[in-house]
Amino acid sequence: MMNKPPIIELEEKVGNRYLLVSVVAKRAHQLMDEYENCADNQALVEAIEEVYNDEVIVVAQ
Asked: How many domains in the chain?
């Protein structure tokens, strides 16, 4: 179970929970493609941290 960063804070950065899941999943897949030896969990954690640190820009279409 993820305790840090809090889900509520991540939701506020992105807009809603559905969009948060989509953004994190897409970024995790990108990270896995970039790094051949990247584990699923490691890519997911890094993607979440990038969203939390405002390193990922979310553009609503």
From this structure: 1
